[in-house]
Amino acid sequence: xxxxxxxxxxxxxxxxxxxxxxxxxxxxxxxxxxxxxxxxxxxxxxxxxxxxxxxxxxxxxxxxxxxxxxxxxxxxxxxxxxxxxxxxxxxxxxxxxxxxxxxxxxxxxxxxxxxxxxxxxxxxxxxxxxxxxxxxxxxxxxxxxxxxxxxxxxxxxxxxxxxxxxxxxxxxxxxxxxxxxxxxxxxxxxxxxxxxxxxxxxxxxxxxxxxxxxxxxxxxxxxxxxxxxxxxxxxxxxxxxxxxxxxxxxxxxxxxxxxxxxxxxxxxxxxxxxxxxxxxxxxxxxxxxxxxxxxxxxxxxxxxxxxxxxxxxxxxxxxxxxxxxxxxxxxxxxxxxxxxxxxxxxxxxxxxxxxxxxxxxxxxxxxxxxxxxxxxxxxxxxxxxxxxxxxxxxxxxxxxxxxxxxxxxxxxxxxxxxxxxxxxxxxxxxxxxxxxxxxxxxxxxxxxxxxxxxxxxxxxxxxxxxxxxxxxxxxxxxxxxxxxxxxx
Length: 488
Ligand code: ADP
Known about the structure:
Layout: E1 15-17, E2 20-22, E3 29-33, E4 40-45, H1 49-68, H2 71-87, H3 89-100, H4 104-125, E5 131-133, E6 141-148, E7 151-155, H5 163-175, E8 178-182, H6 188-200, E9 208-210, H7 215-227, E10 231-237, H8 240-250, E11 256-260, E12 266-269, H9 275-287, E13 299-303, H10 304-319, H11 339-354, E14 358-361, E15 376-379, H12 386-389, E16 396-402, H13 405-413, E17 420-424, H14 428-437, E18 442-445, E19 464-465, E20 478-485
Parallel strand pairs: 7-8, 7-10, 8-9, 10-11, 12-13, 12-17, 13-16, 15-16, 17-18
Antiparallel strand pairs: 1-2, 3-4, 5-6, 6-20, 11-19, 14-15
Helix pairs in contact: 1-7, 2-4, 2-5, 2-6, 3-4, 3-6, 4-5, 7-8, 9-10
Bound molecules: adenosine-5'-diphosphate.
Adenosine-5'-diphosphate (ADP) binds near residues 156, 222, 239 and 242.
């Protein structure tokens, strides 16, 4: 185990199926690397589709007894899991910084955020309730029961290696479902550490199974999960193209789906905004996790009358962000996840500059080399640039000038995406008008940070289906059953 870990047993490199740690049947492993230096951290079991099917069978066997337990019983186990996650927060954060790269302070923040979903849904699970309806005929009664969907499959991304797991496993397990989870190939160590803590919390064998696989075998595992008639629901967080594939693969078995896909978040600063607050919000929403979150601002729209002041302040603050290893003190931005991520960011910057954008901060690979990129601000940006059409998923802030409210709303909505959006204004009429006009699942008004366990997180249009977190989040793991009683 890496020296950063106090509890070396949190460092796992085998998959977790039916409560046991298992190798790939053919002994295959894949490398997990440290994005800060490219060094190999571990070799992890590389499971194929047939072992994903074994995990499904384990989840199926565990489902009956797990759903039969009381919600209170399940909640007690989840509560212990929550407490263990917090008790091992330092180790989980270190492991995350090692394999994902985010600054340690951000990783600690994510541990707390991830734990909050387990706590919240442990509580919500106890509040699942049905209905008694007014009958339409004498001598009858009509009931609505709410039951767990069954075996669920989850496929999760690398940008939030813990929270994207607990946001799915929390409600699923609290509702009485069991789960097979395939974590991102870049960040399986965080997922396995979570499983180790769930095991210690007393989660019964088979209730949560972790199938690890490299990028190639992940596709096979994904196919097995989609094709299985036993798996009643698939929940996925990742890119829109992969979401489409999974939706297609799930069609033959008519699976229920929760999809949390890409975004192209606009961030609008109106002329009546508090400029300094808007710059603070811009920094928080743009550079968190080096811009690698689906709710990170992708494009800024700033009113003509304050444009020059805004870009000057934003560039000044951006230029001051310290880049380096997530373990170094004061670092605000770590490495990007892989070479493909760096190449895409650089392509977006080059394309914008080629079409007339001005670089006000950053604009190139960082002197540290490897996967480090300079936090970048681009001015004089126009709609034809790649960074305005595609999710950059990196530390680039393109800023467009606008003059008219109706115009900027049209531009903000002119995309197939509809996840997060942000705007700054102090005019109460405008705040309601714009919040209602934005075709997005989430709107931040005078804030760049919107995610927490109490809020319904999710998108409209091609940003996805369903909501995670909140009092609504558990509904995605429940089915309604109507019971009609006659002869009473
Ligand atoms: P990102 O852009 O965050 O890497 P992806 O959508 O590529 O997002 O990947 C998110 C998750 O989806 C990862 O766990 C990855 O292994 C998985 N994945 C990628 N392609 C496929 C596929 N064709 N079938 C099943 N899972 C896939």
